[in-house]
Specification:
Elements lengths: L1 H22 L13 E5 L4 E5 L8 H6 L1 H18 L6 H14 L3 E6 L11 H4 L4 H18 L3 E4 L20 H9 L5 E8 L11 E6 L6 H17 L7 E6 L5 H4 L5 E8 L3 H8 L1 H19 L1
Parallel strand pairs: 3-4, 3-5, 5-8, 6-7
Antiparallel strand pairs: 1-2, 6-8
Helix pairs in contact: 6-11, 8-11
């Protein structure tokens, strides 16, 4: 009798252990897009991109989440295209430019640096109440007008008044560089030009225009240096007595965000130094601004032709 009781006890323990094992199994993932995030650092901006590699783990989740999965995957794919900036490659860039020239649809995106709630660099002694963002917007508007007169389609990343909506709004009042890239990449553009003013408080003697272009980045091609060189030559022709324009190649993740993540040929133009009295006086002068815009437009013409 005692032996039979021991056997029953053993059997009961086995059944209980089996039941407990079923109840403590690891939870299954049912979302096609998981909460895991990959980060890609470029300079000051870090982008979070959803992981789209996971799959539903059972038939029920596949049935109940099909619509949500499709929508999430589409959004994630778009995020990868715009935030990680899938490069077009030189062949595709050339083909797009060639076709746009035939169709008369060449498009240039102009980015007035800073703006809205961000004044950019300031210098009371040299600029008074005028800020970097005031100057870049003024030159951007002049450049846009010249290019439009020459038959280009022109899109500004902002108008100085309203922050444009993008799918990738970071929720901040400042219009960030990644948002500007997302806005630009959403356009059917062929060239991106970002305008800024430089500052070097350590020495008021530093002056001149600098043109930055990307090298060894996911999106960089020979066309970045070509547009930079074309604008350099045009500016030096327009201002023969001025200091030579400096070409600045920015390598890899040291590159400025706005020319790292844009998928078309891109440059960032530092028009002059607000900390230099002569440069600041020019930057404030509307006649000089117009000449500067005309020269940049000549560089764009040379690049596309």
């Amino acid at each position: 009798m005692k032996k039979h009781i021991q056997i029953c006890a053993v059997l009961l323990c086995v059944l209980l252990c089996t039941a407990c094992g079923d109840n403590t199994a690891a939870p299954q993932t049912t979302d096609a897009v998981t909460t895991a995030e990959h980060t890609q650092a470029t300079d000051e901006t870090t982008i979070a991109v959803p992981d789209v590699t996971s799959e539903p783990t059972d038939a029920q989740s596949e049935v109940t989440t099909t619509e949500a999965t499709t929508e999430a995957t589409t959004k994630a794919t778009t995020a990868l295209n715009v935030l990680q900036y899938t490069p077009l490659g030189e062949k595709e860039i050339k083909n797009r430019m060639t076709q746009a020239k035939k169709d008369g649809t060449l498009c240039v995106v102009i980015d007035p640096g800073h703006g809205l709630v961000d004044p950019g660099a300031v210098h009371d002694e040299n600029l008074g109440d005028v800020t970097e963002s005031d100057i870049t917007l003024a030159i951007a508007n002049k450049l846009a007008a010249v290019l439009e007169d020459r038959g280009y389609t022109v899109v500004l990343t902002h108008d100085g008044e309203t922050k444009p909506y993008t799918e990738y709004d970071d929720g901040k009042a400042v219009y960030g560089p990644s948002e500007r890239c997302g806005f630009s990449n959403a356009q059917d553009a062929h060239l991106f030009i970002s305008l800024h003013c430089d500052a070097y408080p350590q020495s008021a003697d530093v002056s001149g225009t600098r043109i930055y272009y990307p090298v060894d980045t996911p999106n960089s091609t020979k066309y970045d240096k070509e547009i930079a060189s074309a604008c350099k030559k045009a500016l030096e022709k327009a201002f023969p007595d001025a200091k030579k324009v400096s070409l600045m190649d920015m390598h890899g993740e040291d590159c400025y965000t706005v020319i790292y993540k844009t998928v078309v040929p891109s440059i960032l133009v530092e028009c002059g130094f607000i900390t230099n009295k002569d440069d600041a006086a020019k930057l404030l002068d509307e006649t000089w601004q117009q000449s500067f815009a005309d020269a940049l437009a000549n560089g764009v013409d040379t690049f596309f032709n």
